[in-house]
Amino acid sequence: MAGQREHWNSRSGFILATVGSAVGLGNIWRFPTAVVRNGGGAFLLLFLIIVLFIGVPMIIAELTLGRKSQKNLVSTFSTLAPGSKWWIVGLIGWAAVFIILSFYSVIAGWSLIYFLGSLLGFFSGLDTEGLTQAHNQIVGNPILPILGQAIFMVVTVIVVLYGVTKGIERWSKIFMPGIILILFVLLGRTLLLEGAAEGVLWFLRPDLDLINLNTALDAVGQVFFSFSLGMGAILTYGSYLSPRENIPQSAVLISLSDVIIALLMGLIVIPALFVFNVEPEVGPGIIFVTLPAIFNVLPGSMIWSSLFFLMLSFAALTSSVSLLEVVVAYFVDEKKWPRPAAAISLGILNFMLGVPSALSKGILSDQIILGMDILDSMDFFASNVLLPLGGLLTVIFLAWVWGTDKAMAEIIKGSPHFKWGKAWSFVIRFIIPVAIAYIFISGILG
Ligand code: PHE
Q1: What is the pTM of this model?
Q2: How far from 247 is each of 230, 234, 445, CA to CA, in Å?
């Protein structure tokens, strides 16, 4: 069977597509928001520790499982442990994918609206108060967010429809470099603003008193979300890999790119909050207020702003494509559905699930679950509950059911000198399960 499966055309195509899955709204929208919510440097420190001890080893774990099975998420478990009930982990992954995609396309839709709004000069010359008002009007509108969400979903479906190499790989190669370029321009401009240093310090200097289990759970959720872990996206991309691929090296590259982009965003958004006096209460909309404010002090603000939001939409696209691909791959592999039928029907279903989130900052804003509106609670439940749970079960499966020996045998096919293999096995068997279980259970109960 493996011979018939589509594979990445090139190493760079695989890396770019996987980086494309990892880098998206998670780094650009969610990371700065989480930093602000959790008090700055303390959160950053936790985030980096979790990246090192959980994020990187887990990318290796998922890529290895996928490459070994050459199958989609659900079938990976049933292939590697036939007759067991482990495929249920796949179902948790699906639930996470479906929920994340549903609100992800809403935020990506905002980004599309900001792209058009910038082109029309809608935000030019507004101060942060004006920008906050504009933001509330846009996301609170009963029609616009649904329209943005719908357009974004249609494009996602089209890319998935073309299949792995023609669709995903080609798009990722074009747009990832673009976004990095614009981020550097933004960074340069923010750091030159008077008063930026205070924000930089707040971001980089950890106040250890602010570290508690809730912050830790938020940081775990952020790493899982940002690295696309715990729900099978990385695993599915691994299943299109050939055995020649050096998995540990790829994992480091993917993680580094993801972390660097998140850090860049932190260094752009947080100083801007200080300089422009933006109230952190803006919450999830924070980047939609701070970034246009920075653009407005750049010459040619309209061009920068529209380019940025276009690129952001593309960064989101390479992620949403990987989300939809997780579910589509199952129906194509196992149920023999034609790819277009799977992509279109699942896209429509997911769009409908996302409509309440699209309305959650407007007519549905009084619907509060656990103190959060619909969109934020969907995000919390998927990122802080389902992803860590999916990730926990995945490592337990790899370490204690399938076995780290077999995993090592698979890894060294493409990486004969996997120097820190022993450390990796140890972390996968003991550190990660205990750490996630502890943070997860106490964070949820607390
Ligand atoms: N990692 C993506 C981002 O940071 C989001 C994502 C999560 C994509 C889970 C796939 C799976 O935007």
Answers
A1: 0.93
A2: 18, 12, 36
